[in-house]
Amino acid sequence: MSQSVTSPASSTFSAADLSDNGSPATAYSSPEFTKRSFPSASVSPNQSSYYSEHLNKSHFNLILINSAIKLLRILYTKNPQQGEISEHKLRFFIVEILRRSKTSTQSLQLACYYVYKLIKSNKQVDICPRKLFLTLIILASKFNQDYNYSFKSWLKICGSNDNEFTIRELRSLEMNTLSLLDYELYLNNEKYENWCNVLMIFSYDFIKQQRILLQNTAENQLTFELDDVSVTSKLTHWRELFTTLELNANSSINFKSYFNSQKGSKVIFIDVESERVQVPSLFTKRSICAIDEKLDIVKKFKYSTSIQN
């Protein structure tokens, strides 16, 4: 397990910090709830560059998947009859469903929003986590796209046969889930953007450290929080927040301000070129070992030089 990184107080926020309309309370100035200017239409919240130029697509996908898992854990903490969730099994299921169905980022964000709505509603959910997530992805895809898979195709994507999961059962799950959501699937414009910002702040609360290499963002390192006591405490905090959090056009939730507040603690920028230690020989071949303490990587550099006339 990597070394623990302590986040500043501004890394979390509570329902008490919000006024009735969802905007910041007067006595609270957390950066994530400051007024933001909406980005141009060319950059939308389903793109990693919307949040940070240093966030690559691979990490963005991992962060959203981890968010879905943590949201489901919150939901099923309130519904213990389904038993304790195995994050390992649930992660495998979610990754495979998303990969096989080629689900869009926006549909995943919508599915996470529906989990938030279920948490907020405080309704009893008697559906197993994997089947609920599948149903939410189906609903999100139907809301977000003109062309969608049939129930039969979804069952094929799951690799399910008639003895495990039937079209009738899937159709029944869809109707039951719609009822739990009060048939309200709509999410658009500022409300969608606010939700995406909330989702990313929620996601980053479960990241222990993000190391950003300025010369090559493809090599960035992302470490998720693994300490179960810390994770459980944060889940409890967010469950209380989601119960009272209102998303509306009057509130402006800003992930970029939150991200900036984490620089130097949770978010570490590393200039690889300036951190290298190089002592080349002028006359002989030799291997020089340069230890980059920040990256924890030992790199070997070989130099071959010759005297020229």
Brief sketch in words of this structure:
This is Cyclin N-terminal domain-containing protein. InterPro entries: Cyclin-like_sf, Cyclin_N, Cyclin_PHO80-like. The protein is 44% helix and 9% strand.
How would you sum up this structure, described in words?
With 309 residues, this protein is mostly helical. The protein has two domains: 9-270, Cyclin-like (Cyclin A, domain 1); 275-303, no CATH class. It is 44% helix and 9% strand. It has ten helices and five strands, in the order αααααααββααβαββ. The protein has a three-stranded mixed sheet with strand order 2-1-3, with no helix packed on it. A two-stranded antiparallel ribbon has the order 4-5.
Cα-to-Cα separation, first versus last residue:
54 Å
State the assembly state of the protein chains.
Answer: single chain
**N-to-C SSE string, H for helix and E for strand:** HHHHHHHEEHHEHEE
- Which structural class should the secondary elements be placed in? mainly alpha
What is the count of DSSP helices, taking H or I runs of 4+ residues? Answer: 10
Instruction: Give the strand content.
Output: 5-15%
CATH superfamily descriptor of the largest domain: Cyclin-like
How does CATH name the architecture of the largest domain? Orthogonal Bundle
Structural domain count: 2
- The largest beta-sheet arranges its strands as 2-1-3
Q: What would the average pLDDT be, to the nearest integer? A: 77
Low-confidence blocks of residues: 1-41, 286-309
Q: Major sheet, described briefly?
A: 3 strands, mixed
Radius of gyration: 23 Å
Total number of β-strand segments? 5
Shape label: globular
CATH class group of the largest domain: Mainly Alpha
Query: According to CATH, what is the topology of the largest domain?
Result: Cyclin A, domain 1
Measured as a percent range, the helix fraction is 40-55%
